[in-house]
């Protein structure tokens, strides 16, 4: 799942295939822990928290994809994403691309979270490494790096 901006007072939370965010290249993952939760329970949880993340409330500095992922992780397992990851992305003014949530099936392929997924799946949180940073070149800003933050089930 991801959180992004739009102009409407409706949820900015969306589904995206893990490690396949359009326009970005996956680099790595950092495990933030595990919980046991059925995928349909997790979907219900995401739907409830999505009401707090409307697209028109997205803010590059104070309410972005890092904040969404940090909030979800904290609510589910009491763990925060590493502070330096939030600080690095904010100090460089890099926009967040998305987060991803997936279900790991028996042959270890990842799929979008589905209420039809098998029972007893483990939920783990991952944070993808920053990909791009803002820089200045001759007065123009160029996006060199952006971050993708993810949740993986």
Automatic annotation (TrEMBL):
Q: Which UniProt keywords apply?
A: Hydrolase, Protease
Q: Which Gene Ontology MF annotations are present? A: deubiquitinase activity
Example GO biological process term?
protein deubiquitination
UniProt KW Iron keyword: no
Segments forming domain PPPDE: 1-105
The reply on keyword Hydrolase is yes
Q: State the superkingdom.
A: Eukaryota
PROSITE patterns per the record? PPPDE
**Which InterPro entries does the entry link to?**
PPPDE_dom (IPR008580), PPPDE_sf (IPR042266)
* The family this protein is said to belong to: Belongs to the DeSI family.
Q: What PANTHER family does the record point to?
A: DESUMOYLATING ISOPEPTIDASE (PTHR12378), IP06716P-RELATED (PTHR12378:SF80)
**What's this protein's name?**
PPPDE domain-containing protein
